[in-house]
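Re: your question from the hallway

Yes, I did run it. Sequences:
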Amino acid sequence: MNNNTHISPQQSNRKGFRWLLLSIAVVSVVISGLNTDDNQPEPYPLVYPANFGGRITIPADNPTTREGVALGRMLFYEKKLSADNTLSCGSCHEQKLAFTDGKAFSVGVDKSLTARNSMALVNLLWVRNFFWDGRSPGLEEQAVFPMTNPHEMGQSMEASVRKLQQVPVYGTMFKKAFGTANIDADKIRKALAQFERTLISADSPYDRYLAGTYQPTAQELRGMNLFMEPPAPEKGIRGANCGHCHGGPKTFKELFHNNGLDATPKDSGREAVSNQAEDKGRFRVPTLRNIALTDPYMHDGRFKTLAEVLEHYNEHIQESPTLSSFLRGTSNEKGGKTLLLNQTEKADIIAFLQMLTDKTFINNPAFSDPNKSLKQ
Amino acid sequence: MKKNKNIALLVVTLLISIPFMSLAQQAASISISGEVLTPLTLTKADLANYKSASHKSKDKDGKEHEYKGVALVEVLEKAGVTLGGKLRGENLAKVVLVQAADGYEVVYSLPELDPEFSNNTVLLVAEKDGAPLAAGEGPFRLVAPQDKKQARWIREVRSIKVVFVK
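Structure:
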């Protein structure tokens, strides 16, 4: 949209300078001609591959705009939103780790640990029920939780509003984003949600393979097939059936399952939300995007490596009344109780999982801490 | 005096039980909601109020099973969904969205459930071979005999919602 970027900064002579002024004038005329109201924020284009599907959530009262996203990005990295000015969202959601923090449990302002493992913030546009137990129905609602939870950022929304009011740049930014410099809790949540909606990962080798621009290695291809296929020993088909829960172009389906971590789950998961006994130990199936970067794994960070995860699915599924029926008796041998993949097959699946690492996403300057990139 | 004491005891018992009441597990049920006149919450016992229907079919394991339940359309009629003579005009742009406990979703169109449009019957079942459906499959499941692939034989049905396709 911004035509100014086409003007070369090298135009230093007078004639060039005049041209520059003239073209700026023309561009401004064009822009003001397009915009009926100059103060209207500009829509932020959310670009994603068609195979991701259009089942996305953007509330009617919080359209994604360039100005709103810019503000949301500032707030995401704003430590003043925490009680002792030490934590921002970015502390537990680091871009280089696909917006996780590399810890089993994160440390909050009160130095206590969070109850669950920090989640990757990626392709949230397609998520409908947030958190490991799906208890939050939208990004706007979700954001209040870490900000006010005493074990995370631990500060009331009123206190956050007061602190931001003392920083002049926020007045300007809120005005640009929402048409008023009046800072309130509602606008803080909305801006954060707008920024989070832009965190789209769609350029991993797997995406490129689906787009026909990347040729996987033989090992990656074997891993991909094993990952997607259910085993059918009677037909001689080997598989691990991961795709049943983790498949599709996004490698994310919004499902809730008990994947057999414990015979008696310590954390009841979805049950606490739905109040139904059948949901004991069920958790949201997390995205596998950038999975090689988001260790440790599972809601409690119990596995340090992908090799441990594969061992779990292959050898250590714990039987319980709510164990997913898709993990029960799925085997590569007739009558087998467990998957019974061999070492090569496990390594192949890990090679496929590494295809899900999106370097463009973790290095995208638009997602980084704006204060740090200004200093660079 | 004694009466007062009894009342006091009752109040105390009630107060103590409040937290337990809210914690109590709900009996397994399904909700019928959306574009309906009367939203319903059905338990297994409620199915006895409908005409029973059954279907025999071979499973993946090649064994024959008998599923027993009711015609889904009857439950929708009870909820006041636009069926029969009312299934015309914009009502033809409604779909039945069925969601399972694990979040899995499938849709049926109203005409494919309505006996005035179709000879097929989609069943809402709660029994297999004379026993309640097992955990992971039940307590409720849909059986759509006309579907060659069983992807819409959705297990662990939690909610049925009639919605307009926007």
